[in-house]
Amino acid sequence: MDTLSKTHFKAHALEVFREIENSGEPMIITDRGKPTLEIRKLRQRTESPLEILRGTVLKYEDPLQPVSEDDWENS
After folding, report:
1. What CATH number is given to the structural domain containing 60?
2. For the chain, how many structural domains are there in total?
3. Domain limits at 23?
């Protein structure tokens, strides 16, 4: 993974963005030699939002009934 100082990044940000888009390799931005940021290409999710949420919602038969402590801790 390549590293780049904040000063150089500030002066060449568009070039850096294009390089990351083309290569797909992330880049570390440093501040006084210490890594502070990581810039990487965005990965698009192939799953639909419904697939991501499947199995995460609890079903209650009586929604007006108080929630028990066990149900509250497990949700």
Report:
1. 3.40.1620
2. 1
3. 2-74
Stated pTM of the model: 0.56
Quick one: DSSP state of residue 19? H
Q: How far apart are CA 46 and CA 67, in angstroms?
A: 35
In this predicted model, which residue has the larger pLDDT, 68 or 27?
Answer: 27
Q: Put the strands of the sheet holding 27-31 in their side by side order.
A: 2-5, 27-31, 34-39
Is residue 48 predicted with pLDDT exceeding 60?
Answer: yes
Residue 17 CB neighbours (<10 A): 14
